[in-house]
Amino acid sequence: MTFAEQIVLGFAWTCVTLAIAVGFIIILIEFFHLIERPLRHFPGGVRRGILLIASVLWMLLAMIAVVFAWAALFQTLGAFSNLEDAFYLAMVSITTVGFGDVVLGREWRILSGFTAAEGFIIFGLDTAVLFEMMRRLRNDQAMIDR
């Protein structure tokens, strides 16, 4: 695959996988709105803890879905002979750990850069969502306390 083709494919697959991540965020926000009211009878710290833990676990599930999507692409392209290696490379690329013990061949190596760039984007989005949720929970608790 040429350099230009890798750029086009990397950009296109980043769009697909970001749509997956954003879909998970939208579901999380909707869930947050649904569950927030029934949890109001819990003390503020307990309520915030439950919502924060559930949110973080949901975002971890979203990350796993994105990693699987990248692994599926690597597997489809024939970059790896097994799903475990494809998943591992996607995971260490998205988390930007990059151990280097499993790498893409030269014909696919540009894709790993897109995988890492997406990791930065997703971690930034998830952090923003968590901070906004915590801000809202604190504001709601302040309103209840008044």
Key terms for this structure?
mainly alpha; single chain; 80% helix; 146 residues
Give the integer mean of the pLDDT values: 89
Task: Provide the helix percentage.
Answer: over 70%
Question: What characteristic shape results from the CA principal axes?
Answer: elongated
Structural class: mainly alpha
Largest sheet: none
Please state the oligomeric state of the protein chains shown: single chain
**Low-confidence spans: pLDDT under 50, at least 5 residues?**
none
The tally of beta strands, per DSSP, is: 0
Beta-strand residue fraction: under 5%
Instruction: Give the CA-CA distance, first to last residue.
Output: 63 Å
* SSE topology string: HHHH
Radius of gyration: 19 Å
What does this structure look like?
The chain has helices at 3-36, 44-77, 83-94, 109-145. By secondary structure, the protein is mainly α. Helix content is 80%, strand content 0%. The mean pLDDT is 89. Helix 2 runs antiparallel to helix 4 (109-145) and helix 3 (83-94) crosses helix 4. It contains 4 helices and no strands.
